[in-house]
Amino acid sequence: MRRALVAGNWKMNGTTESIQQLLDGLVTGCQAGNSEVLVCPPSIYLAQVASRLATTDITWGAQNVSQHASGAYTGEVSPAMLVDLGCQYVIVGHSERRALYAESDVLVAEKFSAALAAGVKPILCVGETLEEREQGATLDVIQRQLQAVVSYAGIADFADAVVAYEPVWAIGTGKTATAEQAQEVHQAIRAQLAEADSGIAAGCRIVYGGSVNAGNAAELFAKPDVDGGLVGGASLKANEFITICQAAGEEQTV
Ligand code: PGA
Hints:
The chain is of the alpha/beta class. The chain contains eleven helices and eight strands. The chain has a single domain (5-250), classed as TIM Barrel. The protein has an eight-stranded parallel β-barrel, surrounded by five helices. The radius of gyration is 17 Å and the shape is globular. It binds 2-phosphoglycolic acid.
């Protein structure tokens, strides 16, 4: 059985004060439930988040990580630093980083491996653009992005990883993939992993991201291969995020 994961990707938002308020709201409203709840603040606020959440059931992680272990990499944050701050997860290969910071499939694979080597679980994002979907290339694009990491890291590494299907056209646009569209891609991702190792594929959580909100979460999470969500905008509002977490908690994924 896969335990659902709901991860909040706060992106580049927040101040010390607004984050404290958001955390207070989450701690008050989040019941220890069936689902795992994770928040990913900007890295500069990780220490604050770690200190507030230390005695709660909510876990925290980062939005990005360097592929290097240490040294002269101005502005970067290493996997070991994330471990030092108690991070359990890190998002790698988010489409904003692929598109705006030119992160290639190979670089994403390097970050994925570096995170795992240090003891941080990567949440590997894959997803097609609107143009790619309209050309009927969705499954090809996902397969390429996933295969780059499977080939580089090895399938065994997916025992401790999460895959996030995030159609680029659904991110921050208010346009969600239908539950059927999400399920189709999630199933294809699991089938691709199963070609390498069926046991790892069955245990690997595949979460959906792209305009998940309080109104659509339950329908998405009800699909058999949708094991939770990666939530952007709606994760900045405590009440809405809590509702999404509850929707995941009610779903028994098998
Ligand atoms: P969104 O972002 O929920 O605001 O669409 C999701 C993401 O980018 O992870």
